[in-house]
Design a protein that fits this description.
Elements: E1 3-8, H1 21-31, E2 35-40, H2 48-51, E3 61-64, E4 67-70, H3 72-82, H4 91-121, H5 128-150, H6 162-172, H7 184-195, H8 197-211
Parallel strand pairs: 1-2
Antiparallel strand pairs: 1-3, 3-4
Helix pairs in contact: 1-3, 1-6, 1-8, 4-5, 4-6, 6-7
Protein backbone atom coordinates (compact mmCIF):
# COMPACT_ATOMS: atom_id res chain seq x y z
CA UNK A 1 0.00 0.00 0.00
CA UNK A 2 1.23 3.48 -0.83
CA UNK A 3 2.28 5.63 2.11
CA UNK A 4 1.03 9.22 2.09
CA UNK A 5 2.35 11.89 4.41
CA UNK A 6 1.34 15.51 4.83
CA UNK A 7 3.70 18.46 4.76
CA UNK A 8 3.54 22.24 4.76
CA UNK A 9 2.52 23.78 1.47
CA UNK A 10 5.07 26.44 2.41
CA UNK A 11 7.34 25.56 5.32
CA UNK A 12 8.10 28.33 7.84
CA UNK A 13 11.80 27.50 7.58
CA UNK A 14 11.83 27.73 3.79
CA UNK A 15 12.62 24.04 3.37
CA UNK A 16 15.79 23.93 5.48
CA UNK A 17 14.89 20.60 7.05
CA UNK A 18 13.49 21.82 10.39
CA UNK A 19 9.83 21.01 9.68
CA UNK A 20 8.89 17.70 11.23
CA UNK A 21 7.91 16.04 7.97
CA UNK A 22 11.66 15.86 7.25
CA UNK A 23 12.00 13.30 10.04
CA UNK A 24 9.35 11.08 8.51
CA UNK A 25 10.76 11.51 5.00
CA UNK A 26 14.18 10.52 6.33
CA UNK A 27 12.82 7.39 8.01
CA UNK A 28 11.00 6.36 4.83
CA UNK A 29 14.16 6.92 2.80
CA UNK A 30 16.27 4.86 5.23
CA UNK A 31 13.71 2.05 4.94
CA UNK A 32 13.64 2.34 1.14
CA UNK A 33 9.88 2.95 1.08
CA UNK A 34 8.20 4.99 -1.67
CA UNK A 35 5.76 7.60 -0.46
CA UNK A 36 3.52 10.38 -1.64
CA UNK A 37 3.17 13.84 -0.11
CA UNK A 38 -0.04 15.79 0.26
CA UNK A 39 0.71 19.46 0.81
CA UNK A 40 -1.53 21.41 3.18
CA UNK A 41 -1.84 25.12 3.79
CA UNK A 42 -1.99 26.65 7.25
CA UNK A 43 -5.71 27.18 6.74
CA UNK A 44 -6.30 23.60 5.61
CA UNK A 45 -4.48 22.29 8.67
CA UNK A 46 -7.31 23.63 10.84
CA UNK A 47 -10.14 22.31 8.69
CA UNK A 48 -12.17 19.20 9.43
CA UNK A 49 -10.53 16.92 6.84
CA UNK A 50 -7.06 17.42 8.32
CA UNK A 51 -8.24 17.49 11.93
CA UNK A 52 -9.66 14.02 11.37
CA UNK A 53 -6.07 12.89 10.81
CA UNK A 54 -4.33 15.18 13.30
CA UNK A 55 -6.60 16.49 16.09
CA UNK A 56 -4.13 19.26 16.94
CA UNK A 57 -4.01 20.59 13.39
CA UNK A 58 -0.32 20.05 12.71
CA UNK A 59 1.91 18.14 10.32
CA UNK A 60 3.02 15.54 9.47
CA UNK A 61 0.46 12.79 9.29
CA UNK A 62 0.99 9.30 7.94
CA UNK A 63 -1.56 7.23 6.04
CA UNK A 64 -1.13 3.63 4.92
CA UNK A 65 -4.31 1.86 3.94
CA UNK A 66 -6.73 2.15 6.85
CA UNK A 67 -3.98 3.26 9.25
CA UNK A 68 -3.61 6.96 10.03
CA UNK A 69 -0.96 8.24 12.45
CA UNK A 70 0.28 11.57 13.76
CA UNK A 71 3.29 12.47 15.95
CA UNK A 72 6.70 11.96 14.37
CA UNK A 73 7.91 9.68 17.15
CA UNK A 74 4.99 7.31 16.64
CA UNK A 75 5.37 7.41 12.87
CA UNK A 76 9.12 6.73 12.91
CA UNK A 77 8.59 3.92 15.43
CA UNK A 78 5.95 2.37 13.17
CA UNK A 79 8.26 2.48 10.16
CA UNK A 80 11.24 1.14 12.11
CA UNK A 81 9.28 -1.79 13.56
CA UNK A 82 8.04 -2.97 10.19
CA UNK A 83 10.91 -2.34 7.81
CA UNK A 84 14.68 -2.92 7.97
CA UNK A 85 17.15 -0.08 8.21
CA UNK A 86 16.25 1.70 11.44
CA UNK A 87 16.38 -0.92 14.21
CA UNK A 88 19.13 -3.42 15.03
CA UNK A 89 18.31 -7.13 15.00
CA UNK A 90 19.30 -7.69 18.64
CA UNK A 91 16.31 -7.26 20.98
CA UNK A 92 18.25 -5.39 23.66
CA UNK A 93 19.84 -3.04 21.13
CA UNK A 94 16.39 -2.44 19.66
CA UNK A 95 15.05 -1.51 23.09
CA UNK A 96 17.92 0.94 23.55
CA UNK A 97 17.18 2.50 20.15
CA UNK A 98 13.60 3.12 21.32
CA UNK A 99 15.02 4.59 24.53
CA UNK A 100 17.06 7.09 22.52
CA UNK A 101 14.01 7.99 20.46
CA UNK A 102 12.19 8.91 23.66
CA UNK A 103 15.25 10.73 24.98
CA UNK A 104 15.46 12.85 21.84
CA UNK A 105 11.81 13.90 21.94
CA UNK A 106 11.17 14.04 25.69
CA UNK A 107 14.49 15.12 27.22
CA UNK A 108 16.56 16.94 24.62
CA UNK A 109 13.99 18.64 22.40
CA UNK A 110 11.76 20.48 24.96
CA UNK A 111 14.38 22.98 26.17
CA UNK A 112 15.53 23.51 22.57
CA UNK A 113 11.99 24.46 21.59
CA UNK A 114 11.91 26.88 24.51
CA UNK A 115 14.61 28.91 22.75
CA UNK A 116 12.27 29.35 19.78
CA UNK A 117 9.45 30.37 22.13
CA UNK A 118 11.56 32.99 23.88
CA UNK A 119 12.90 34.49 20.67
CA UNK A 120 9.78 34.57 18.54
CA UNK A 121 6.78 34.40 20.88
CA UNK A 122 8.09 36.27 23.90
CA UNK A 123 10.56 38.48 22.05
CA UNK A 124 8.86 41.69 23.12
CA UNK A 125 8.85 40.88 26.83
CA UNK A 126 11.10 42.88 29.17
CA UNK A 127 12.48 39.70 30.70
CA UNK A 128 13.41 38.10 27.36
CA UNK A 129 17.20 38.32 27.82
CA UNK A 130 17.16 36.83 31.32
CA UNK A 131 14.83 34.01 30.33
CA UNK A 132 16.81 33.24 27.18
CA UNK A 133 19.98 32.92 29.24
CA UNK A 134 18.30 30.47 31.61
CA UNK A 135 16.88 28.39 28.76
CA UNK A 136 20.20 28.26 26.94
CA UNK A 137 21.89 27.03 30.13
CA UNK A 138 19.33 24.23 30.38
CA UNK A 139 20.09 23.28 26.79
CA UNK A 140 23.82 23.30 27.50
CA UNK A 141 23.26 20.96 30.44
CA UNK A 142 21.46 18.49 28.17
CA UNK A 143 24.15 18.76 25.50
CA UNK A 144 26.92 18.25 28.04
CA UNK A 145 25.34 14.98 29.17
CA UNK A 146 24.67 13.86 25.61
CA UNK A 147 28.21 14.64 24.46
CA UNK A 148 29.64 12.72 27.42
CA UNK A 149 27.54 9.68 26.53
CA UNK A 150 28.37 9.85 22.82
CA UNK A 151 32.09 10.21 23.46
CA UNK A 152 34.06 9.54 20.30
CA UNK A 153 31.54 7.08 18.86
CA UNK A 154 29.86 7.69 15.54
CA UNK A 155 26.37 6.87 16.82
CA UNK A 156 24.62 6.60 20.16
CA UNK A 157 24.58 2.82 20.45
CA UNK A 158 26.63 0.97 17.88
CA UNK A 159 25.19 1.38 14.41
CA UNK A 160 22.86 4.09 13.18
CA UNK A 161 19.26 3.67 14.34
CA UNK A 162 15.94 5.46 14.64
CA UNK A 163 17.28 6.88 17.90
CA UNK A 164 20.03 8.69 16.00
CA UNK A 165 17.58 9.82 13.33
CA UNK A 166 15.41 11.62 15.86
CA UNK A 167 18.33 12.90 17.94
CA UNK A 168 20.05 14.41 14.90
CA UNK A 169 16.73 15.93 13.79
CA UNK A 170 16.28 17.53 17.21
CA UNK A 171 19.84 18.85 17.39
CA UNK A 172 19.51 20.41 13.93
CA UNK A 173 17.10 22.91 15.50
CA UNK A 174 20.03 24.31 17.49
CA UNK A 175 22.10 25.34 14.51
CA UNK A 176 20.65 28.89 14.19
CA UNK A 177 21.37 29.56 17.88
CA UNK A 178 25.07 28.72 17.65
CA UNK A 179 24.86 26.48 20.72
CA UNK A 180 25.66 23.35 18.74
CA UNK A 181 29.05 24.82 17.80
CA UNK A 182 29.98 24.81 21.49
CA UNK A 183 29.98 21.00 21.37
CA UNK A 184 32.23 19.87 18.48
CA UNK A 185 31.52 16.17 18.96
CA UNK A 186 27.78 16.78 18.68
CA UNK A 187 28.23 19.07 15.69
CA UNK A 188 30.21 16.28 14.00
CA UNK A 189 27.49 13.78 14.98
CA UNK A 190 24.83 15.94 13.32
CA UNK A 191 27.02 16.32 10.24
CA UNK A 192 27.30 12.52 9.98
CA UNK A 193 23.53 12.28 10.05
CA UNK A 194 23.16 14.95 7.37
CA UNK A 195 25.71 13.13 5.19
CA UNK A 196 23.63 9.97 5.00
CA UNK A 197 22.20 9.51 1.49
CA UNK A 198 18.70 8.93 2.90
CA UNK A 199 18.81 12.27 4.72
CA UNK A 200 20.10 14.01 1.62
CA UNK A 201 17.16 12.67 -0.40
CA UNK A 202 14.65 13.69 2.29
CA UNK A 203 16.13 17.18 2.58
CA UNK A 204 16.20 17.70 -1.18
CA UNK A 205 12.57 16.63 -1.52
CA UNK A 206 11.39 19.09 1.11
CA UNK A 207 13.58 21.89 -0.24
CA UNK A 208 12.26 21.36 -3.77
CA UNK A 209 8.70 21.99 -2.62
CA UNK A 210 9.64 25.26 -0.97
CA UNK A 211 11.89 26.38 -3.83
CA UNK A 212 9.10 25.99 -6.37
CA UNK A 213 7.07 29.13 -7.16
CA UNK A 214 3.78 29.31 -5.35
CA UNK A 215 0.76 28.39 -7.42
CA UNK A 216 -1.21 31.45 -8.57
CA UNK A 217 -4.47 32.11 -6.80
CA UNK A 218 -7.57 31.17 -8.81
CA UNK A 219 -9.38 34.10 -10.42
CA UNK A 220 -12.33 35.54 -8.56
CA UNK A 221 -15.63 34.59 -10.11
CA UNK A 222 -17.68 37.43 -11.53
CA UNK A 223 -20.90 38.33 -9.81
Amino acid sequence: MTVTITAFERSPDGGKGLARDTRVRWALEEAGLPYEVRLVSFRAMKEAAHLALHPFGQIPTYEEGELALFETGAIVLHIAERHPGLFPADANARARAVMWMFAALNTVEPPILEIVTVKFVEGDKPWKAERLSLVEDRVRARLTSLAARLGDADWLDGGFSAGDLLMVSVLLRLRPSGLLDEFPSLAAYVARGEARPAYQRAFAAQLAINAAPAAPAPPLSAG
